[in-house]
Fold:
Amino acid sequence: MDIKYNITKYKDNNVEEIKDLISVEEPLEMNLQFQKNGKWINENISITMRTPGHDEDLLAGFLFNERIVEDISEIDTIEKAGDKVGDYNIQNKIIAKINKSENVDINKLKRNFVTNSSCGVCGKTSLDTVEIAKKEKLNLSFPKIKKNIIMKSPDLLSKEQSEFSKTGGIHASCLIDESGNVIATREDVGRHNALDKLIGFTQKKKLIDNHSQFIACSGRLNFELVQKGLMSNIGIMAGVGAPTSLAIDLAKRFGMTILGFVKNNSFNIYTNKDRIIL
Structure:
């Protein structure tokens, strides 16, 4: 979603007043409905700043990646709620009803802060927290991806970014197979939201094949993006920027291959290089 704003543009000693397309950022209140002691309970678990669109995928991916649900099938329904508000006339509240409530620990899950569109759940930097949720390391024998497919991924990602081509202000995550076919793409102003949307959609549609696919992300790979990939047993993640130190540490611990500075003629491998066919 985008909207036109009046701006002043300076270029080559020329100043002009133009209308420019800007990516929309709006809050989304994410709620969970579950049963406890025979009673239905509604809890607000997080507020995130997102680009409106594919909100159902966003919440499904969030619930799966945070291990609020172990399987997407535990989600009965996801529905928008509340009045349509603001300049964009959209609903900024969404509710997931889950059918397996006995393991819900709302005090552990409830967010007491707003997640930020640039860094996601800022401050959640404990490798031990991930280790509790992720019981096993990834199998290092797959996937195997050829170097030319890796170097092709930024162009594939760019071609799939319809919103970025219009505004230049949005991130994307893309699921790609070993032959260079794009399985699915999702965009958002937040890197973590884009990945939640992608994983939510591909998990629901059962499109993920860990033996032959990898995920490409715009921007850098940070701790949270790697953590989200691990929850779907993604063996390779590639970013067009640099990974953070904690992302590398997490990938090493759980056996993920991460790549950075991916271009059409080069890339850096930071962990588990044997998955890449050079």
Summary: The first strand starts at residue 2 and ends at 11.
